[in-house]
Design goal:
- There is one protein chain.
- With 109 residues, the protein is an alpha+beta fold.
- The chain has a domain of 73 residues: Alpha-Beta Plaits, CATH 3.30.70.
- It is built from 4 helices and 3 strands; from the N terminus they run αβαββαα.
- The termini are far apart.
- The model has no long low-confidence stretch (mean pLDDT 76).
Length: 109
């Protein structure tokens, strides 16, 4: 890691806000937190990152860490994520409705 980066963040205390299964989920949640303005990183057992990574069980667990000062905000964002507030799929009502033009035909013709 960059020595200047480590020196700038030497006084930061990182706390675990979540534990998930697998590196992919860890990267996804860290990306979400970063996109929402929360610094985040993840930590995993070394064997989970080997040539043949472990993807199930305790060795696959990934800890999501954020600076101590950002824990509450990170937990709120993660709660929203798990509640489905970041889903991009249209609701069942939106997907079943068709947009019609004034004469009753499909709009895109």
């Amino acid at each position: 890691m960059n020595p200047e980066y480590e020196e700038m963040h030497a006084d930061v205390i990182w706390e675990v806000v979540d534990e998930v299964a697998g590196k992919l989920m860890g990267e996804l949640l860290c990306g979400l937190l970063n996109a929402e303005g929360v610094r985040a990183r993840f930590s995993q057992e070394a064997i989970g990152n080997s040539v043949f990574p472990v993807t199930v069980g305790p060795l696959a667990e990934v800890q999501i860490l954020v600076p101590e000062a950002e824990v509450e905000r990170a937990k709120m964002i993660l709660d929203d994520y798990y509640a489905g507030k970041f889903n991009l799929e249209p609701s069942s009502e939106e997907s079943s409705e068709e947009v019609l033009d004034d004469d009753g035909g499909d709009e895109a013709t």
